[in-house]
Each structure stands twice: as structure tokens, then as C-alpha cells.
Design goal:
190 residues, alpha+beta, Protein Transport Mog1p, Chain A, three-stranded antiparallel beta sheet, 3 helices, globular
Length: 190
């Protein structure tokens, strides 16, 4: 199990040490998250956080954390225009579709939310589910997209929330989030 935990977060393209800055504007981080480690086909979600984002949690906590968040380099955890969240529910036996259904239900109960899109699919080795929603939270209007993948034991995925500018529509933002997921969250099975 310790070996599996060590494999969960391989920092493929970033080298972090005490002598280096935590993450600079050119640093790209890549995470490998387990979807299904049951033979014959093993699947991982390879997530890339593009340059220009900084983590809100210390890298030393990433291996054990269930949530790791990133905001634009010059923003803070309280005042951000967008936030990327990596979520990992390792060993929880949560299906991707059930998790997305729970997120959707929470939004519909607690926010003036409008669900923009939901979909799910099943592959032989894993399940995927995603949704996007527009809602108001405190003084902000936000658009959230989430995409999750699960196998028999693990569920991992991303959430990306953007606070649109006045000239941007919710649908445009949801499409931007979808493109981000397509480019930066890749399933790799072997």
C-alpha cells in the first residue's frame, strides 16, 4: 500500500526542493492518480497543472491529501478568479457517477444553481462522470465544471471553477472548462 501511495503523486515535470522557489511561473506539474489498479488493465488519470498557477497546500501534504487546489500565481485563496482542484478518494469505493450526482444535488439544494450539463460513461476498466453548473456564492457568480473517474476502489478527478468576467457567458465558461479538462486530464490505461 505504501508503494501505491508513493506512485499516486509522481511529480513528473517539477523538481521541488527547499533550495528552489516553491513553484514559479514556468513550472508545469503533472500528477498520476490511480483510477483502476486491478488487472488486467490498469488505468491512471494524468493531470497537468499548467504554468502560472500556484498551490494552496504545501507539496509535503499532497500525498496524503484528498484535495489539492491551485489558483493563478498572483491571486490568493480568498481572492481568486479561478481555482483548479484535484480530488482523490483512494480506497473509498465511490463511483464517479455517484460523486457527481452528490455534487449536483448539493448545488441544487444550497445555491441558486443552474446545471448546464451532465454526462457519464462506462468503459471496461473505469467509469467517468462530469457536470457543469452556474451559481451564485456570496458576492460572486461562478461556473464550476467537474470530471471524475473511478474503478472498483478509487475515485479521482478535477474541479475547475471560474468567476466569469461581465462579457463572458456561463456556456462559454463551461466550454472553456471542458477544453481545459480535455487538454489536462488524460486517462492512460495499459
Amino acid at each position: 500500500m505504501k508503494i501505491l501511495n508513493s506512485l499516486i503523486f509522481l511529480l513528473i515535470t517539477a523538481s521541488l526542493s527547499a533550495a528552489e522557489p516553491l513553484i514559479n511561473k514556468e513550472t508545469k506539474l503533472t500528477f498520476m492518480l490511480p483510477i483502476n489498479w486491478v488487472p488486467p488493465t490498469k488505468c491512471n488519470l494524468v493531470v497537468t497543472i499548467p504554468p502560472g498557477y500556484k498551490p494552496l497546500q504545501m507539496p509535503s501534504t499532497w500525498e496524503e491529501a484528498t484535495l489539492i487546489e491551485f489558483v493563478p500565481q498572483n491571486e490568493s485563496q480568498d481572492e481568486w478568479t479561478e481555482i483548479i482542484s484535484i480530488n482523490k478518494l483512494i480506497g473509498k469505493k465511490m463511483s464517479a457517477s455517484r460523486l457527481v450526482d452528490e455534487i449536483k444535488s448539493t448545488f441544487l439544494k444550497n445555491h441558486e444553481a443552474r446545471i448546464l450539463q451532465t454526462k457519464s460513461s462506462h468503459d471496461l476498466s473505469y467509469e467517468s462522470a462530469q457536470m457543469s453548473a452556474a451559481y451564485n456564492f456570496e458576492k460572486y457568480h461562478e461556473v464550476l465544471g467537474c470530471r471524475y473517474y473511478s474503478g472498483p476502489y478509487d475515485c479521482v478527478g478535477l474541479q475547475y471553477t471560474i468567476r466569469p468576467k461581465k462579457e463572458e457567458t456561463d456556456v462559454e465558461i463551461a466550454q472553456r472548462i471542458e477544453r481545459f479538462f480535455d487538454a489536462n486530464a488524460i486517462v492512460n490505461c495499459n
